């Protein structure tokens, strides 16, 4: 995906098992939110055969805050879009597997769940 493209995020509702907020659009742009496929040597060693389904996203902490993204939040990546009136992320094709902090950025490991 390139800068200017959009993804959608469905945040998991705290305290609920399978309930998510309505999808929110995130436009990919420099120093706002970037998404790239995972292809580095360390990523290959870490994720193994799942490397083709793994994405790395970077988002500045100053822009998003340290508590915006959480593990198990759902995403629509690779030009997938939510259907009309979709509220629970039923057709989301990816999920956040890891949230970590690196200096001024939040690093998200995203795993594609649907081909």
Describe the structure using short key phrases.
single chain, 115 residues, mainly beta, Thrombin, subunit H, 7-stranded antiparallel beta sheet, 2 helices
Your description of this structure?
The chain is mainly beta. It has a single domain, classed as Thrombin, subunit H (Beta Barrel). It is built from two helices and seven strands, in the order βββαβαβββ. The chain has helices at 41-47, 61-64, and strands at 6-10, 24-27, 34-37, 54-60, 74-76, 94-102, 105-112. Strands 2-1-5-6-7-4-3 form a seven-stranded antiparallel β-sheet. The protein is globular and about 40 Å long. The model has no long low-confidence stretch (mean pLDDT 90).
Please provide a brief summary of the model.
The chain is mainly beta and 115 residues long. 10% of the residues lie in helices and 35% in strands.
Largest sheet: 7 strands, antiparallel
Integer-rounded radius of gyration: 14 Å
Would you tell me which CATH topology applies?
Thrombin, subunit H
Number of strands: 7
Q: What fraction of residues sit in β-strands?
A: 25-35%
Tell me the span between the first and last alpha carbons: 16 Å
**Number of discrete domains:** 1
Overall CATH class = Mainly Beta
Alpha plus pi helix count: 2
Task: Tell me the structural class.
Answer: mainly beta
Low-confidence stretches: none
């Amino acid at each position: 995906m390139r800068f200017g493209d959009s993804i959608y995020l469905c945040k998991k509702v705290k305290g609920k098992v399978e309930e998510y907020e309505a999808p929110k659009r995130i436009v990919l742009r420099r120093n706002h939110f970037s998404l790239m496929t995972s292809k580095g040597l360390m990523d290959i060693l870490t994720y193994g055969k799942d490397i083709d389904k793994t994405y790395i996203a970077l988002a500045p902490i100053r822009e998003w805050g340290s508590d915006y993204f959480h593990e198990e939040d759902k995403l629509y990546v690779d030009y997938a879009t939510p259907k009309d009136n979709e509220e629970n992320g039923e057709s989301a094709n990816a999920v956040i597997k890891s949230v970590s902090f690196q200096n001024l950025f939040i690093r998200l490991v995203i795993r594609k769940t649907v081909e």
